[in-house]
């Protein structure tokens, strides 16, 4: 007896003095619902079977049946009913005898979580009436035949998103009878971009096809002068992914009553996508060391990551910004929130959010790495989610920035957003959430300054156009690039841009150049440089040009610095430096070449073959300094994919991956991955060695599940070579 009591005590959730019931923040937990609720004393000989009772419930939940077809949920690999809120769906109830509307009374009950309450939207009794009101819970009989009735059920357009348990309750003079708990009748309810009353309503069918239903996308990376793209398998319809996404909200301990609100869901998800505070989905690593995990460049999609996390409950190692953004996109699209991945080229990581990236130069004009703390990422990926913002003034709904990459804390956790893109553009950074940080990512100025011996800070150059140079996403309906820079900022130098900046400053974004600074730039000499496009493993040159626009003779001492950098702009090592003297004739131009040999950089190279070049030049006659910096990325070899056999759903075919090693060295411990939603689940193969200049071939047998245009995506990874990708579009025919 005492043992039972102690285990019961352990099971009982802890209460605090503030609330009568514990938090209801788990979709997975359930309460026990009584099958019979008796009113007072029951007469002798009472038999529940004498009254109307339910024999069976049909949910029309096959992909080809009416519910999944009308609700655009037929692609989900799930045997359960999946519907979108605010839109009617059909169910059939078979009774033990014909239903008599005059005397029989029944209703539906939808429950979610362990402590269902009607006022919290977690217990929903649905009465049968004569008509359905748009966007409100209700049911009406649309067909009667023998012992069966067919109902049209409408869910609320603000309903909680999650997995509901369904019961049918029947009233009798002596009590209420309910159907037994049956997991087969569980119903998933999702956001509905097709419903005008839903907060995520999107009124363009092509956009809904792209931002909700497309399960493969393109993520742009590289550098603003050398844009690269890679395909990413979102896989939001794959088996168990919907359950994994609902688990993320349980993990974040988001109250069930808040799960109908896309703003709350995005805010908690941006924290739980990374592992910094709460053992979330992905552990980030930016130091080129990936012990006990895999390099971020290995992943070809979100499915493996989410399923590994769902089963292990441990952060998956490792990710960088495009991995966080790819997985976040899967989460949003899976739940029905329109979403897309954004790439911001030359993205500012401003440590003190003062709209100013400070680069400090020493007396010779070289960048002082000890005092320079801000960095410019070659690119940074985040997400946009589409929703109304009733918490903000009219006009700030639509696309919202959400970012799962852990950069800075917000309200004590590593998260960012949702931030209205429209508010960013107009400088209204007072509106929640995290607008000053996002504004700085796309609008900061680069300030090069030097401290003189007397302590005065001299500003040598202010570059107002380098940051947020280009902001892009995938085109609708194709793999092309769509430039959306103008959605974030007005044209550089325009009156509107200046006004947006002044508005941001008025609302509290810090922008100051300290009082004891002097700024008199050299305006009559221009300096720039170009980097020759090069393939990994080859030599290339950097050409530095000077243009003297004045009638004066000038001479200058120039300093060239070549650095291996992480794509976040953080320097790993300087591999090349070169000082040279320049004579500048009046009204003339001159060019100087610096050769970069492969032997100088190959041993030091990081993941994404990223270089960062700094050129500074001191004009001897004036003491002024010119400064230019650029990032560049080497061309990385591609994987080639081809197919063999007929490409028909349900029939066996072959995918063949080929790769030629371009380096004059043997590649060791090489991993190949191949995946394609609807064609094959992720396959992996390890190769011990690929000799220099030799070709590797890998043949994979697969059976496509779904007809239509699908995509195969492959990646190759080893310590000497990362970010090697290949892809192939395949048209799968119907059997």
From TrEMBL:
Required cofactor names: Ca(2+)
Residue numbers spanned by region Disordered: 1-32
Example of a GO biological process term: blood coagulation, fibrin clot formation
InterPro entries in the cross-refs: Ig-like_fold, Ig_E-set, Papain-like_cys_pep_sf, Transglutaminase, Transglutaminase-like, Transglutaminase-like_sf, Transglutaminase_animal, Transglutaminase_AS
Ranges for domain Transglutaminase-like: 313-406
Keyword ATP-binding: no
Chain residues that bind Ca(2+): 443, 445, 492, 497
Record keywords, A-Z: Acetylation, Acyltransferase, Blood coagulation, Calcium, Cytoplasm, Hemostasis, Metal-binding, Secreted, Transferase, Zymogen
SMART domains tied to this protein: TGc
Location(s), subcellular: Cytoplasm; Secreted
Catalytic class of the enzyme: transferase
Enzyme Commission code(s) on record: 2.3.2.13
Active site: 321, 380, 403
GO cellular-component term (any): cytoplasm
Oligomeric form and interacting partners: Tetramer of two A chains (F13A1) and two B (F13B) chains.
Function: Factor XIII is activated by thrombin and calcium ion to a transglutaminase that catalyzes the formation of gamma-glutamyl-epsilon-lysine cross-links between fibrin chains, thus stabilizing the fibrin clot. Also cross-link alpha-2-plasmin inhibitor, or fibronectin, to the alpha chains of fibrin.
Similarity comment: Belongs to the transglutaminase superfamily. Transglutaminase family.
Name of the protein: Coagulation factor XIII A chain
């Amino acid at each position: 007896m005492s043992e039972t009591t102690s285990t019961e005590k352990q099971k009982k959730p802890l209460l605090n003095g503030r609330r009568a019931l514990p938090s209801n923040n788990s979709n997975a937990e359930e309460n026990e619902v009584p099958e019979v609720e008796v009113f007072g004393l029951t007469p002798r000989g009472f038999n529940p079977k004498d009254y109307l009772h339910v024999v069976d419930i049909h949910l029309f939940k096959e992909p080809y049946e009416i519910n999944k077809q009308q609700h655009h949920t037929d692609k989900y690999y799930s045997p359960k009913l999946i519907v979108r809120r605010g839109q009617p769906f059909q169910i059939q109830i078979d009774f033990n005898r014909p239903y008599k509307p005059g005397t029989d009374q029944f209703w539906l009950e939808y429950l979610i979580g362990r402590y269902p309450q009607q006022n919290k939207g977690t217990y929903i009794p649905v009465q049968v009436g004569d008509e359905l009101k748009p966007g409100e819970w209700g049911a009406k009989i649309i067909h009667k035949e023998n012992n069966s009735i067919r109902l049209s059920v409408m869910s609320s357009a603000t309903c909680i998103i999650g997995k509901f348990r369904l019961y049918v309750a029947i009233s009798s003079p002596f009590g209420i009878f309910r159907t037994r708990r049956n997991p087969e009748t569980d119903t998933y309810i999702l956001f509905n971009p097709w419903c005008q009353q839903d907060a995520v309503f999107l009124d363009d069918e092509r956009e809904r096809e792209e931002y909700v239903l497309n399960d493969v996308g393109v993520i742009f990376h590289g550098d603003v002068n050398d844009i690269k793209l890679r395909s990413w398998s979102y896989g939001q319809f794959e088996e168990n992914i919907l359950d994994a996404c609902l688990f993320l909200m349980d993990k974040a301990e988001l109250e069930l009553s808040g799960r109908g609100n896309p703003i709350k869901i995005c805010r908690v998800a941006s924290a739980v996508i990374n592992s910094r505070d709460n053992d979330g989905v992905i552990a980030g690593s930016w130091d080129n060391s990936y012990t006990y995990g895999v390099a971020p460049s290995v992943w070809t999609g979100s499915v493996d990551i989410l399923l590994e996390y769902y089963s292990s409950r441990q952060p998956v190692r490792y990710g960088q910004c495009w991995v966080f953004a790819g997985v976040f996109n899967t989460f949003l699209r899976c739940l029905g929130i329109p979403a897309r991945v954004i790439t911001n080229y030359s993205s500012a990581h401003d440590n003190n959010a003062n709209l100013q990236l400070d680069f400090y130069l020493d007396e010779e004009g070289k960048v002082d790495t000890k005092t320079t703390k801000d960095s410019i990422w070659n690119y940074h990926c985040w997400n946009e989610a589409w929703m109304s913002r009733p918490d903000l003034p009219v006009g700030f709904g639509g696309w919202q920035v959400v970012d799962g990459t852990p950069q800075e804390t917000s309200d004590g956790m590593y998260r960012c957003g949702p931030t209205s893109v429209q508010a960013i553009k107009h400088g209204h950074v007072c509106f929640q959430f995290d607008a000053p940080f996002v504004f700085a990512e796309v609008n900061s100025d680069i300030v090069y300054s030097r401290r003189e011996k007397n302590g005065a800070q001299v500003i040598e150059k202010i570059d107002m156009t380098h940051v947020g140079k280009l902001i892009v996403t995938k085109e609708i309906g194709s793999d092309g690039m769509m430039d959306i820079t103008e959605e974030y900022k007005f044209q550089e130098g325009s009156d509107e841009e200046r006004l947006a900046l002044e508005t941001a400053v008025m609302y509290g974004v810090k922008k100051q150049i300290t009082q004891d600074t002097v700024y008199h730039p050299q305006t009559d000499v221009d300096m720039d440089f170009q980097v020759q496009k090069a393939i990994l493993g080859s030599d290339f040159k950097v050409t530095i040009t000077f243009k003297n626009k004045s009638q004066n003779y000038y001479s200058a001492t120039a300093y060239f610095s070549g650095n291996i950098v992480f794509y976040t702009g953080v320097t790993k090592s300087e591999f090349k430096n070169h000082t040279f003297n320049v004579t500048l004739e009046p009204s003339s131009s001159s060019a100087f070449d610096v050769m970069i040999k492969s032997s100088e950089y190959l041993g030091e190279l990081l993941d994404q073959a990223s270089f960062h070049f700094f050129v500074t030049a001191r004009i001897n006659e004036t003491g002024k300094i010119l400064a230019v910096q650029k990032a560049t990325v080497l061309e990385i070899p591609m994987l080639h994919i081809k197919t063999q056999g007929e490409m028909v759903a349900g029939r066996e075919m072959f995918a063949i991956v080929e790769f030629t090693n371009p380096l004059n060295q043997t590649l060791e411990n090489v991993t190949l991955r191949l995946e394609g939603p609807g064609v094959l689940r992720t396959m992996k193969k390890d190769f011990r060695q690929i000799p220099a200049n030799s070709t590797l071939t890998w043949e994979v047998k697969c059976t496509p599940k779904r007809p239509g245009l699908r995509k195969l995506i492959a990646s190759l990874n080893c310590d000497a070579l990362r970010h090697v990708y290949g892809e192939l579009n395949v048209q799968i025919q119907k059997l």
